[in-house]
């Protein structure tokens, strides 16, 4: 497979960037021509229709296609035997599985037929809660094949979180498995689903894959086994090769919903549509990582997050690439696990998160001994700002200073990478994401939304926005378009607001400094402070709470909770109460949201109008006790002293 849109020189980057801004319709039509369409756009339609007021974004509306025909069928003719997914199990002693494009295509067709047999139709929402096994990718692609909208939920979310998402999405179908292996743990996924379904009246069918052979309850009429269903399809198959016709989808039909945290309320369902997402994930995959046919690409993310959607499932498969999918975690059975995998499968491109790098750094160089990393050509990071120390360690000890490091900035809402250097084509710079991809028009604004144009000490600093839509931008938030407008398009007129702060230098390079809203980024996972507070407040003894982030050596940010207990507090029980609060948060959101630190306080610093002054709480959590700024507008300034003392 060749990539006519692959940028190979810095001059071409500048030329392509210029054209993408001056003639976005022409530019993206050329990229679109490299895919297979069932029907081209009607002659009279515009390639792009948009405004950021409603907001409305439509790319190639009226054109018809199916994304799985592009990710699977079109590779069969020439690359059917190319490995599509190499799967490395949690336990290094278990056998690796390799699925060629031919095999993956067949399995997706079989399971797509299973879905149809179970009544799933185009537009239906299917919730997927499976560990990192190939069946997860098969489930995702099978939904896409029949036009069902998938909504994958990460294994670290609780039954309550799943129940909320099922309800919000109006999901009638679930695909899950008995359990998932993660390091030394065995997570009972089906049992969590059973809890999520208590009281649920909309889910008609749960399809259960077997991975851990954990005993599970199976309800007659609702729960069926994946394997039985597939066997039934194979038995009834008439042709030698089962080829389930792919549903005809409009370019702007929804492809999936993925829930993500914001600064207010419950997580929202970010919606991506078929064609724009297809173009964006392929284009960014091929250009940022400079993928060459034959390369083995290892993205260490979980498919439960956007990185796994875009760079384990869709981007690599659309590009006909060979991707490596890993079930386990970087530190089990030991901290050499990633390096083992790189060595064993001769990985060429490694894409991971700064948290993983920092965590592995802390084990020193021993785990790298006797590991052959010479196959590596490109290294990537994603999910949170990377500190220079981690960047240099990655570059020096993993890339041996011969692999370009791409620092890729993007979000669930952006579908794929927006700002990054292109490996070996545009220069890298430690802890800078550098330049926008073609089609991406970033700008920095001040609090009032005025564009910042002045440099102070060689950089300008402000809130990061986008001026115009790229093909992969979110289209709406599921069931609540107004929320989408409010969250992303109302802070600054006619701009998409990312929620991040950034610097820009005179050459147009960007460095992302972190969230400027009430969103935390813990180990590269997004959490809303309000969401965590709501969960803490569910504990019977809690009156109120305030959650802030603080710098954490490995996680990037840690969760610090200030909690006010009711009058019945017994100090000797404090440690137990803290554990109870952690258990409550685990139950309401999931283990990933558990605070790292809890401090009991008698009150929170509030202004006379009742607003919590988070600035002060943040400072205390960061340990900056002597530099709290103006506290005179507080209702009860004495509370600050108490909080400071409690911290000491
Ligand atoms: C942060 C993950 C600095 C950022 C793909 C963004 C980053 C949020 C980077 C989105 C990076 C992501 N440098 N910060 N290279 N990549 N972020 O939706 O704050 O899980 O807004 O998407 O992660 O997180 P999300």
Task: Offer a concise description of the structure.
This is Acetate--CoA ligase. With 648 residues, the protein is of the alpha/beta class.
Task: Please provide a written account of the structure.
This protein is α/β, with parallel strands linked by helices. It has a domain at 523-646: GMP Synthetase, Chain A, domain 3 (2-Layer Sandwich). The protein is built from 18 helices and 30 strands. Helix 3 packs across helix 10 (306-318) and helix 4 crosses helix 5. The longest helix is centred in the first third of the chain and has 17 residues, at 101-117. The protein is globular. It starts with 9 loop residues before the first helix and ends with a helix. The relative contact order is 0.10. The structure holds 5'-O-[(S)-ethoxy(hydroxy)phosphoryl]adenosine. The site of 5'-O-[(S)-ethoxy(hydroxy)phosphoryl]adenosine (WTA) has 23 residues, from helix 10, strand 20, strand 24 and strand 25. Residues 73-470 form the AMP-dependent synthetase/ligase domain. Residues 13-71 form the Acetyl-coenzyme A synthetase N-terminal domain.
